What we know:
Layout: H1 15-21, E1 24-31, E2 34-41, H2 48-65, H3 70-79, H4 85-90
Antiparallel strand pairs: 1-2
Domain Terminase large subunit GpA endonuclease: 4-61
Organism: Blastochloris tepida
Pfam family, one: GpA_nuclease
Amino acid sequence: MECAGACHFPADRDYAWFGELVAERAVRKYTRGVARLEWVKDAGVRNEGLDTRVYATAALHGLFAAGWRLTDLAARLKEAPMLSASTAEAAPQPAPAVIRSKFLS
């Protein structure tokens, strides 16, 4: 079922990888009487899965800030014709242009 805000994960992820996603916890700390939220990594736990997820989310928000509309892009990709592997291989590549200098002649 597709819904907005859903997180999709590859089927080959193991239990340890999901453990990396929850390797940090929010802790409320006070500085001069002002509460702030700080994420603290649990000791001895890897968090690379969480880090890559955060980087991907930041990249997605960067695309939004640049004006990308991902729903429009997805609709255009659905409408685009799919090329088969044989069609892509059969297309001849144009020869690169050779620019000859008269200086060396």
